[in-house]
Design brief:
- The protein is about 40% helix and about 15% strand.
- Helix 10 packs across helix 12.
- With about 375 residues, the chain is of the alpha/beta class.
- It is globular and about 65 Å long.
- The model has no long low-confidence stretch (mean pLDDT about 95).
- The structure holds pyridoxal-5'-phosphate (PLP).
- The site of pyridoxal-5'-phosphate has 15 residues, from helix 3 and helix 4.
Amino acid sequence: MIPLFDLHRQRDRLWPCIDERLNAVLRHGRFVLGPEVEALEARLADYTGSRHVVTVSSGRDALYIALRADGVGPGDAVFVPAFTFSSTAEVVVACGATPVFVDIDARTFNIDIANLMAAVESTRRRAELTPKAIIAVDLFGLPADYQRLGEVASANGLLLIADAAQSFGGRLGERKVGTLAPVTAVSFYPTKPLGAYGDGGALFTDDAARAELYRQIRINGRGLSGLQESDAGLTGRLDTMQAAILLCKLEVFDDELRRRRSVAARYDDALAGLVAVPVAPDGAQSAHALYTVRCEARDSVAGRLAAAEVGCNVYYPAPLHLHPAFRRFGDGVGSLPVAEAASRHVLSLPMHPYLRDEEVDAVCRAVRTAVA
Ligand SMILES: *Cc1c(COP(=O)(O)O)cnc(C)c1O
């Protein structure tokens, strides 16, 4: 069996560091907002070049906090790509705002700029909702087009949030994820590129006032005075234990990214022509959270790979506007055709930095047989 993800090999490599750091936490006993949390935030700021980093309880909570801190609420429209993990839109609904689903680019799977501009324009014209924010998603690890997204956001007075849950470690030119948008939300879910041993996330921003609000919201909305400052609040901190683990994982993160890139390149070489392989625009570097191909006969290929003991999965089997909880915000089947087609054709293959070349080759042989 070649699993889709495998955390065991990484654990074996990092065990001495993790053992030492977890024991240090057990000894000092500051399990909430302990010194490892502060150390991790400093390391993440340093790594990305972002001025402020606020670690939080999950990627979902990072997005939620970002929206609440900017006062997004009832009557506001937040533009989200229709093809992503459901949290991207769920947080909008949780704030009382309305998600407006936007179709994606057929090649990158990321939000399509022309469709975004049309959605902002038609929301304005209808005048029922106030356009407030864009949440762009870096799907499968590939950063969205933040240059043009920034232009659309400024031209329309919208907050631009990067949902970088899958793309920590990615870049556009020399600029790293964490600095590509005014606000970036990252997830440390175990199978994300930088994963903890449980839930976790972080917010990245250069804006000191926003960072302060994020810190308030993650401690129930309380300020430094100890008084309730904000009516938004979560028990939204990253555990000290998880910060300790992430400090160990950051040590090898660049090495892991290089290995993810070489796994992806090996797949590209062997699979191009058999299935549609991922593409990245010039200058964009994916974090390769997932290696996702497209093929017409996706369901039969997936079934054959599973029978050949190759782990694979469909991210995502339905676009957001067709999820039961979100149908009321969309225009139904046929309204966002690129996202709908993607959900029928995508298939993610095993991807992690500890895949061996022989395993990648075995996956490629299984794909060759499965599409024949
Ligand atoms: C994983 C993910 C999230 C949510 O992150 P959690 O840490 O699991 O809450 C949000 N958006 C996208 C695109 C994701 O992949």
